[in-house]
Specification:
- The protein is an alpha+beta fold.
- The protein has 2 domains: about 1-355, no CATH class; about 400-520, Jelly Rolls (Sandwich), CATH 2.60.120.
- It is about 55% helix and about 15% strand.
- The chain is built from 17 helices and 11 strands.
- The chain has helices at about 5-25, 45-55, 60-70, 70-90, 95-125, 130-140, 160-180, 185-205, 210-215, 220-230, 240-255, 265-280, 285-295, 300-305, 310-315, 325-355, 365-395, and strands spanning about 1-5, 235, 400-405, 410, 415-425, 430-440, 450-455, 460-465, 475-485, 495-500, 510-520.
- Strands 3, 4, 6, 9 and 11 form a 5-stranded antiparallel beta sheet that branches. It has a 4-stranded antiparallel beta sheet with strand order 5-10-7-8.
- The longest helix is centred in the middle third of the chain and has 34 residues, at about 325-355.
- The radius of gyration is 25 Å and the shape is globular.
Length: about 525
């Protein structure tokens, strides 16, 4: 089949991709939820998908997007590689000029999303953003959050894509020159390197279940480079055998962990063939192509704002029993984020216009600065890679310390913070495992429950919710297990590791007994 992609085709594909992502990021929080193989893999998730589909066929819309909707990201990555290559062919630019131009588009988008987040928290929660959100926004503003454990999908899960796409932007000018010269040989080489790093992190280093590599450029370079090759090889003809192979690999990748990393490239090939086939059907398709092209035009602002408006709609959906109720709640969610995206686009366009006024003339000095920045980034990513390899080699080599600090106590408005742990780190530990348990009861079952907070000043501030089922006067046993993995950019030596129960702004009282806290280093 001959693959042809026009500018309108890219808008339609982006529109389809953003709808997949929006529905996925909503429905995978709504029961029935089979899970998804996005950053990590489990064969049980595809088993759950088919099991739930058989048990509740009316929920097919929910289940389909919950399990498969995240693959819309691959379409975005593919189209990005294609569009950037077409642009570079028509208007060649240096590395520094290209990266600066991309940042002038990417930063306003992130800032528009952050503004929507701040306003959303005020409207939905009647409060300002908390310390945790402020702390997690810092690496996101530097686009390094996917390199930090537990930060990639914090605050607003979809924002992991910002770091990924920036990394691809940084690599693109270099890849473009290489691909122009070596074409498919370069593509194969990049795939070998990419999959080599994926398997190294997933099976060699056994760190974070390979999730870090799947959030960063090595995990998605093949799809990006496939888009580049389609632009360089116009009207590329691809045999049907590749479609059959892609379908086989995609099916195997949802059952066997060994094939899982290849599913993202496989679904990209399947999407290309499917779209080209639909274009050739002798029917009027404007009723579908026009709305998809429209959503493609606002896809980036829709992407930036949709993640954190799920909570109120999910609360509503819990009372809408049945598949039709869940389906309608999903449409309601789309309407809400659509309206927010239109408002955010006004702010985004304003910021872009202001940044477009900044012009840097290309000269020998700018080329030198660009080259210095390029080398510095190469050294930075080499350092991060080396750090995580070293962390893997040193894990589980430290001593064990057991701490039991508080046996019982009362949490109430006069003592909002009740400390369970306050241990100063005597070394810059690579990781530690925290285990906490206690018997919990409520003296006022109508009040919201307190939360557990793990705090390392200027390094970590994480909340752990106590389930609503514990809001009873009868003591119930609560357990928490959490593993802290120190990011490459932090030093915790000499800092206190704090664990405490916290009542945020409420008049209520709770009792805990038989508390045990264990810190494994």
């Amino acid at each position: 089949m001959r693959i042809t992609i026009s500018k309108r085709d890219t808008s339609i594909l982006k529109g389809f991709a953003i709808l997949c992502i929006v529905f996925h990021n909503y429905f995978h929080w709504l029961n029935p939820n089979p899970g998804e193989n996005e950053f990590t893999f489990s064969a049980s998730r595809v088993e759950n998908f088919f099991q739930l589909l058989g048990d509740e066929p009316g929920e097919w819309f929910n289940l389909l997007f919950s399990y498969l909707g995240h693959y819309g990201v691959q379409i975005f990555v593919l189209i990005s590689g294609f569009g950037l290559t077409v642009s570079m062919i028509n208007r060649p630019r240096t590395w520094e000029s290209f990266v600066l131009n991309r940042l002038k588009k990417l930063y306003p988008l992130l800032l528009s999303g952050i503004l929507a987040l701040f306003l959303g928290v005020i409207v939905m929660d009647s409060q300002l953003v908390d310390n945790y959100i402020m702390m997690e926004l810092k690496p996101k503003l530097l686009f390094i959050h996917t390199l930090i454990p537990n930060s990639g999908v914090s605050v607003n899960g979809p924002w992991w894509f910002f770091a990924l796409i920036l990394q691809l932007y940084l690599l693109f000018p270099l890849l473009f020159q290489w691909f122009k010269k070596w074409k498919w040989k370069a593509f194969v080489t990049v795939c070998v390197v990419s999959y080599g790093l994926i398997f190294l992190f997933r099976y060699g280093l056994t760190l974070y279940e390979g999730s870090i590599v799947m959030m960063n450029a090595p995990g998605h370079l093949p799809e990006f480079c496939l888009g580049m090759m389609l632009a360089l090889q116009k009207d590329q003809k691809i045999g049907w055998g590749w479609l059959v192979l892609a379908i086989v690999i995609f099916c195997l990748g949802n059952v066997y962990a060994l094939f899982y990393p290849f599913t993202f490239l496989a679904i990209s090939v399947i999407a290309l063939f499917t779209y080209q086939g639909l274009k050739r059907l002798p029917i009027k398709k404007q009723w579908l192509s026009r709305p998809l092209a429209y959503f493609g035009g606002i896809s980036m602002t829709l992407f930036a704002v949709h993640g954190f408006f799920r909570k109120p709609v999910l609360t509503l959906a819990q009372n809408m029993h049945g598949s039709w109720g869940h389906f309608l709640s999903g449409l309601y969610f789309l309407l809400i984020v659509w309206a927010v995206a239109l408002a955010a686009k006004v702010f985004y366009d304003f910021l872009c216009r202001q940044l477009d006024k900044i012009h840097i003339r290309e000269s020998r000095a700018t080329r030198i600065i660009g080259r210095v920045c390029q080398v510095a980034l190469e050294l930075f990513f080499a350092y991060v890679l080396g750090y995580y390899i070293a962390q893997n080699l040193h894990k589980n080599t430290q001593t064990v310390a057991d701490l039991q600090l508080v046996e019982s106590g009362v949490v109430h408005q006069d003592a909002q913070y009740v400390s369970l742990l306050n241990q100063v780190a005597d070394e810059n530990m690579l990781s530690f495992d925290l285990q906490c348990s206690f018997d919990f009861s409520s003296q006022d079952t109508l009040s919201p429950l307190p939360v557990l907070v793990l705090d390392i000043p200027h390094c970590l501030w994480m909340k752990f919710e106590i389930p609503e089922s514990y809001n009873t006067s009868t003591p119930q046993h609560f357990e928490l297990s959490y593993r802290y993995l120190r990011p490459f950019n932090q030093n915790i030596k000499g800092k206190p590791i704090k664990l405490y129960l916290w009542i945020p702004n409420q008049n209520s009282s709770f009792t805990f007994e038989n508390a045990q806290v264990t810190l494994l280093r």
